[in-house]
Recover the amino acids of this structure.
């Protein structure tokens, strides 16, 4: 499985330094997602069916709700080390109103971005902090993450110009049956695991529901439900208050082994190892 070198949760979302040694299934996040290679061989992600190489000279940018997978192709037994940023839209929007659209699946125009000399320096600084520092204060971590993130966000060629909040993919413009289905999936534990029940609840056949859901959201209802499952799991595992068995039950898995397999396929590590590794970024005393 992939090795978690450092994993931090905070207001910014999640930041992870990872050694990748296994593929990841097609999945998505509600965050916009920036991937940078820190060390090791060049690799590739697949984003909406397009191959996106990840090298020393470029980053891969993935929109919220954009399907992607990791293709693991080791070179001479050497595994890549990645810096993965999962950016919380509310955190980004707190710095600029133009980032309000960061939760939109067309926020980034391009999935590839070249890395300049300054970006590489900041990337190295973040990676060294995550690798070697025993503790990183919340404020310092936010400041170096923001420096890197803004270097991408300030590039007009990477971002969609104009207001995406009222565009065709907005929830307000969706078929009302799909809006209702999304509400059920977000609020009902059964909505995570029983897609047929959700389709029946909105008076659609399973096949019609799948077709209409993808047309409205760009995702299959299964991938969408899996996003919700994983985000629920991330929060529950970071809080460390509930047992793994209870979390699996809440997510609709009939056995703990099913939850473990599902989580590993999407994150590359088991939920127990994720829980052991995850840290909440500490805040400075006021």
């Amino acid at each position: 499985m992939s090795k978690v070198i450092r994993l931090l949760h905070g207001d910014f979302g999640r930041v992870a330094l990872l050694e990748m040694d296994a593929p990841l299934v097609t999945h998505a996040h509600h965050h916009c997602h920036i991937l940078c290679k820190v060390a090791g061989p060049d690799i590739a992600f697949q984003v909406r069916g397009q191959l996106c190489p990840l090298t020393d000279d470029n980053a891969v940018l993935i929109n919220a709700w954009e399907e992607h997978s990791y293709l693991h192709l080791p070179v001479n037994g050497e595994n890549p080390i990645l810096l993965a940023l999962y950016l919380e839209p509310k955190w980004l929007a707190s710095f600029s109103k133009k980032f309000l659209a960061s939760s939109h699946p067309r926020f980034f125009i391009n999935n590839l971005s070249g890395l300049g000399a300054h970006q590489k320096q900041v990337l190295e600084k973040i990676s060294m902090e995550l690798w070697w520092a025993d503790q990183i204060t919340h404020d310092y971590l936010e400041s170096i993450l923001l420096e890197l993130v803004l270097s991408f966000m300030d590039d007009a060629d990477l971002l969609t110009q104009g207001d995406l909040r009222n565009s065709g993919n907005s929830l307000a413009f969706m078929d009302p049956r799909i809006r209702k289905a999304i509400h059920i999936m977000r609020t009902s534990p059964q909505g995570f695991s029983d897609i047929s029940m959700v389709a029946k609840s909105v008076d659609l056949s399973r096949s019609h529901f799948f077709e209409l859901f993808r047309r409205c959201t760009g995702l299959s209802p299964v991938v969408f439900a899996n996003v919700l499952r994983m985000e629920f799991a991330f929060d529950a595992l970071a809080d460390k208050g509930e047992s793994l068995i209870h979390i699996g039950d809440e997510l609709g898995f009939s056995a703990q082994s099913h939850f473990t397999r599902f989580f590993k396929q999407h994150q590359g590590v088991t939920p127990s190892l994720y829980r052991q590794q995850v840290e909440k970024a500490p805040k400075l005393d006021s």
